[in-house]
Amino acid sequence: MATCDRMLVKTISLLGHKDHGKSTLIGNLLMLTGSATKARIREAQEYSKMLHKDFEPAFILDSFAEERTNEMTIDTTRAEIKYRDIAFAFIDVPGHEELIKNMISGASYGEIAVLLVSAKSDEGVRDQTKRHLFISKMLGIDRLIVAVNKMDTVGYSQKRFEEVERELSGFIYKIGFAEENVHFVPVSAYTGENLIKKSARLRWYIGKPLIEILYEEAKNEGRRQEGALRIVTQGVIPGTGRGHVVGRVVSGAVRTGQSVCILPQGAKAKVMEVMVKGKRVRAGKVGENVALRLDRNIGAEMRGSVITGTDNMPKVTDRVRLKIFVTGSFGRSMYAKFNGVDIPCKVVKVLRGIDVSTGDERSSTKVKPLDAVEAEVRLSRRVPVENYDVTRELGRFVLYTGNAFAGIGTLNG
Amino acid sequence: MIAQDLKTLEERSIYIIREAKLKFKNVAALWSMGKDSTTMLALTRKAFLGKIPFPVIHIDNSIDFPETYAFREYLSKKWNFKVIVGHSEIKPDLVGSACCGKNKPETLKKIMKEYGFDALIVSIRRDEHGIRAKERYMSPRDKDFRWEYKNQPAELWDDYSSKLDAKGHIRVHPLLDWNEIDIWRYIKQEHIPVNPLYFSRNGFRYRSLGCTHCTVALKSDAKTVDDIIKELEVTKQEERSGRSMDKEREYVMQRLRALGYM
Amino acid sequence: MAKANVKEIADMLWKKPSRENWLIFAKALPKSGLKYYKIVYSNGGKLRKAQELVKSYAQLYDAGERPVIRIPIFEKDGSRIVGATYYMKGLLTINKVDEWIKS
């Protein structure tokens, strides 16, 4: 292993059905890029030997022993795969239906996803795969690399590859992915072909190997430097005088002397001081956690509020129309987690059902777990909201019924 | 080992520590005087304009290193914070393995109850081997301190917590994304004081600290933070391994036995 | 504080490692000329019972790394036995190679 250089860590969600080879992909990527330590590889070999199995790269990943028993990853695990100056932190997302809850947690970390789909005709594209994609798009993934796996079992057939590509692209574009952000790559995770280097047996494929496409996408990930000021507040910490309001800048920048508006309170104030990491600065930028001294007391609870500029402000409302991926039942005592606070809410009306495996409207508006609906939700108080595509933090809600997770909702269009 | 961008790590940790203080009613932090928990305290000062606005707990089993006790006194005075010392015992009828494992949780439980803490900041990192790779930024513990990893709540976006039963508490892990080398690079950047045991004397030093009973020294000539960073850049040794490569097979056998394979 | 007294204090601790005596030791430490320590656990370092603490000891050295005295590492008040490394605050670990191999 080379001496460690400073590396940019990029989170990549790895989606796909459990039998389509994800663990194998990770294992082989770890080895081929030299990212797995000798000790870890040796441990995997020892295990394989003791279990009388052929050496499976998948064993390298497992940090929970039970997983090895069932050969199924139970929870999201991380693997860091180094390539040039980027370390890809793969979040392996389990495919088992019962564990959809965990899957959502896994998918929400990355903005780039790799979807692994088997080329084998009897394994093809499943409803579950489509469901993963639907949720991923909802959760902010907008770059997708579809790795068509097990090409070694279909004779490296270009025809079969294109069949899979055709089968999936319709759905992918329907749920909102842009063509220029989607790539299809033929691979064999088990033999390692086209993961890092191109393979002679895939000569008909004119694109780049998987890791190179990933690298390019990771390098191109944009930043929200421009855009209107949005700070989500966590509360007030004691400081000189009336204390400092602390929060995270999710868009734009905040400057000393700037006039700001605090929502939903609707109060106006001037920023007297901006502190970042304990030091006074002229401006706080995207991604930074700021502590602001304002020229007045805002009074009411400052948690989950939004600080904005005095123009281009988000709407403040207690009624929202959300696209909801349903994970549990909707009931009487529901609440929404929004920017760190719990807001009692009620699903007033289900407008339409959405079939997550096609993206089309469903004939029934019944609320079914693992499917989606569009619904009107009323919150017990007014909050600042914005389209999910504009400012994620102001357009997403996690819904609960009692203590049970009921769904995730986004404000779209 | 990957050296990550410190600025990003710092921002995430500051956010999590602020959340811990502002979201829960009564949060406290565990401190072992080691490099990780001391870094956590340094980050806390950054998050709260130089102050440490919650109690700091040391669970003391009475056989820690003298340097560790000295460091506890030194830093608490320098950074002006109080330490709640919980004394765990080495029971005369203790059955099984190490002294640290059995008794510390009992003592911690007593303190949590006595002071009514509902959240606890713990400085574990994901790169520490094994089960820790599954932890989340905030994870609930029930009243018996058990952690049902199979029922982990959905940690969605930036809302890290979940509802817990009244007697349980939430564990907060602000250093989850940090690597061992990131900790040392940050210590260097911020000139954070550290326990002298980390530095080499007579050809040996400690890479990770426990009490005098269970901690093993490593061969090393690293006398400064720079030396340690350089050493980490080339080493492949797992932080908590006292095991030599020869013992690896034995270790694997043990694990399989525990699983019922042999 | 003369160095000779240090042997007296060590004897006192072996006879009665009470809190009172440990505090006397801690007070005498800064001017005692002692600088380093090495803890040797009985039972090859596998501490399971408090009783085993009783058989362990700390070898103390001067600034020239010469061994001076041996002291217990436990405190006993009534029937309660706890560790006493806290009182050795101020001393530094010696990490000596040959000592390492011996224990």
What does the model show?
The complex is a heterotrimer of chains A (413), B (262) and C (103). By secondary structure, chain A is an alpha+beta fold. In chain A, the strands form four sheets. A six-stranded mixed beta sheet of chain A has the order 2-3-1-4-5-6, sandwiched between helices. A six-stranded antiparallel barrel of chain A has the order 7-8-14-11-10-15. With 262 residues, chain B is α/β, with parallel strands linked by helices. In chain B, helix 1 packs across helix 2 and helix 5 packs antiparallel against helix 6. Chain B is globular, with a radius of gyration of 19 Å. The C terminus of chain B is likely disordered. Chain C is of the alpha+beta class and 103 residues long. Chain C has four helices and six strands. In chain C, the strands form two sheets. In chain C, strands 3-2-1-6 form a four-stranded mixed beta sheet. A two-stranded antiparallel ribbon of chain C has the order 4-5. In chain C, a hairpin with a 4-residue loop joins strand 2 and strand 3. The longest helix of chain C is centred in the N-terminal third of the chain and has 12 residues. Chain C is globular.
Keywords:
heterotrimer; B: 262 residues; alpha/beta; six-stranded mixed β-sheet; two-stranded antiparallel sheet; 7 helices; globular; disordered C terminus; C: 103 residues; alpha+beta; four-stranded mixed β-sheet; 4 helices
Summarize the structure.
The complex is a heterotrimer of chains A (413), B (262) and C (103). Chain A has 413 residues and is of the alpha+beta class. Chain A contains seven helices and 22 strands.
